[in-house]
Amino acid sequence: MGSLEQNAPAGRGKGVETVAGTLREEVPVASNLVAAGGAMEHGNHHHDGVGVGGGVVNGLMKKRKMIPLPLEVGTRVLCRWRDGKLHPVKVIERRKLSTGPDDYQYYVHYNEFNRRLDEWVKLDQLELESVEADEGEKFEEKAGGLKMTRHQKRKIEETHAEEGHEEFDPASLREHEEFTKVKNISKIELGRYEIDTWYFSPFPPEYSDCNKLFFCEFCLSFVKRKEQLARHMRKCDLKHPPGDEIYRQGSLSMFEVDGKKNKIYGQNLCYLAKLFLDHKTLYYDVDLFLFYILCECDDRGCHMVGYFSKEKHSEEGYNLACILTLPPYQRKGYGKFLIAFSYELSKKEGKVGTPERPLSDLGLLSYRGYWTRILLDILKKHRGNVSIKELSDMTAIKTEDVITTLQALELIQYRKGQHVICAEPKLLEKHLKAAGKGGLDVDASKLIWTPYKEQGG
Ligand code: ACO
Ligand code: ZN
Which of 55, 118, 417, 449 is deepest in the core (most CB within 10 A)? Predict the structure, then answer.
């Protein structure tokens, strides 16, 4: 899907690095959407007499007369995003400001972007002339219709289809979105980073009135105020996750934490992770899970980079439940490392595995990238025929995932009731080049681990 990222420079403030984890341009075509800029303003009026350049002295005053304020929840309108361009949004929620009786802020969803970019905006970011009272697709069609080609529209649709929503029925998806529609915590401080959050997380009610939470980077307990955290840090004697170190490679370490032995840690981790995971149920029953925490270690301690969770016993054959790389560490290969690690554990168990569904948009990209590279590497080196089953046995990747990956690469054909791999060396080379860099490798010889079952679990 090309490079979707528009990385924000990590600023510095109050001794913590600020990571605008939400600054991603999800859809490459988005910047062209209203490239005409004013085209929308000039060409798409629905309110007679609100013409720009039509002798309007005070545009806003005049607009306010025509469009009832405050805007209703559900209104569709164009909003100026941080890229300086106008994008179609839907108003999800509104709240009164203390600055005046008619002052409101609006929580908006950008139609073309993932929900992690939803945010509170001020009225002056909204292009009131574009207000569309009608619900539904009509407005997007119009906004898109201005500049979007059919190809661009399809890209947007595909992106949305890949967002991991497809396995929810419409009613439960609506219910999920209603309940989690507004982010409750907008920032967290963790170690030396301040991180913008992506999604709602069901913190206990006493935390519902705070915008920012402060986490102890070692035991993951969280508090509302910086002074409380400072007090905690003086007392907390952890310098790494509370579990066994099962892997060390240079400054990288992986710890295994048993949710049953470290319940509070497991719960805290789930609250934290949910801030960056959309469609994941929060498991209060952390007893049933093992958590694999990846850390970068230095003389101050082991700093969490990301993690994945794994059910102790999965009936569905999942080898990973949730995976997260914390935003300051994303796009550096840690995600692929975590994925590779989960398959190394499966190999030790003598099983094949697959990640729990649904996958998020970024989860899908990462898994597809991982599967592609691993399978292409084997096909390139392998002499003679190799079957899907053999590929699966070698990699611990479930056969269904092997098939979908090879199908997407058009390296597989269905002949006489059988899948046949057709791997031309030239084609393999081309795909391998396109698959990009491999990321951090897991050195299986450094893994010191006994599967849970054999630990007596
Ligand atoms: N834009 C475009 N492609 C991306 C992006 C992005 N923002 N982020 C990752 N990718 C793709 C790329 O193909 C990348 O490979 P490349 O850098 O070689 O091009 C590949 O994913 C993996 O990149 P990594 O650097 O190895 O992965 P990262 O450390 O960023 O972690 C992860 C990936 C874990 C999915 C991360 O994005 C994340 O934590 N997201 C939020 C939580 C989430 O969605 N988790 C998955 C849910 S599904 C589940 O849990 C089963
Ligand atoms: Zn602590």
Answer: 118
